Amino acid sequence: MSGAMVTVLEFVGIYVFATSGALLAVHKGFDAVGIVILALLTALGGGILRDLIIGDTPPAAFTNVAYLVIPLVAAVVTFFAHPLVRRLTFTVLVFDAAGLGLFCVTGTLKALDFHLGPVQAVLLGITTAVGGGVLRDITARETPALLVVDTELYAIPAAVGAVMVAVAHEADLATPVVAAGAATFAFLFRVVAMVRHWTAPSAWEPRRRQD
After folding, report:
1. Rounded CA separation 198/129 (Å)
2. Contact assessment for residue 146 and residue 195, using Cβ atoms and an 8 Å cutoff
3. Residue 192 pLDDT > 60
4. Domain-by-domain residue ranges, the chain?
5. pLDDT tens for residues 107-158?
6. Which of 39, 58, 137, 153 is a Cys-bridge partner for 22, taking CB atoms 3.0 to 4.6 Å apart?
């Protein structure tokens, strides 16, 4: 059940992340090749890195053709349907948030299936969630959202979703229910952070005494 659930969630995450990559490519004025490349990088980058770390080689993206077909379909759909999207920039961020929520869950679940500890599983969940977005931004000559000063919370929603899954696993709670709830919570957390402009705190600076 856990393996099938991870696969389903991962396929959904691949599609929405690929869409976010393809939309950014359209927004930057890339041609068809650029759209496909950004869709593939965004959808598969984090998962490939995760699989290499846990020793699941070759990565699933190279053993299951669906992992390649899904982002290609997303790229084609975006290529033709993007004029229907009014607020292109915000739509990219919404799809990115959806992928973030799904991938932080699937990355954590797969790490737990490989008998990693809860802390290591959370770290791999975060890596899975943010890795593709970082590769997308670098390729599109953008500063990764993960590193931009005063950017809205990005890694923290993924971390919260991953922690929820790891804690539920340790407590033997119903994994499918918790996984769906964690993905939804991470997605909504990220969207609210974008709307309300929540940011992570900067380094603490001591107050200077005024004479």
Report:
1. 19
2. no
3. yes
4. 2-196
5. 999 999 999 999 999 999 999 999 998 999 999 988 887 777 667 788 899 9
6. 39
Residue 185 buriedness (CB in 10 A; 0-12 / 13-18 / 19+): middle
- Degrees, nearest 5: CA angle 76-61-127: 100
Reported residue count of the chain is 211
- CA distances in angstroms from 4 to 1, 8, 30, 32, 165, listed in the order given: 5, 6, 36, 33, 16
- What are the angstrom distances between the C-alpha of 95 and each of 22, 73, 157? 11, 15, 15
Render pLDDT for 21-35 as a digit per residue (tens, 0 to 9): 998 898 889 999 999
109 within 8 A of 81, measured Cβ to Cβ: no
pLDDT at 87 exceeding the cut of 80: no
Q: Are 111 and 121 in contact (CB under 8 A)?
A: yes
Whole-angstrom Cα distance, residue 194 to residue 154? 9
Is residue 1 a contact partner of residue 113, using CB atoms and an 8 Å limit? no
Q: Is the peptide bond before 58 cis (omega within 30 degrees of 0)?
A: yes
For residue 3, is pLDDT > 80? no
CA dihedral 206, 198, 14, 104 (to 10 degrees): 50
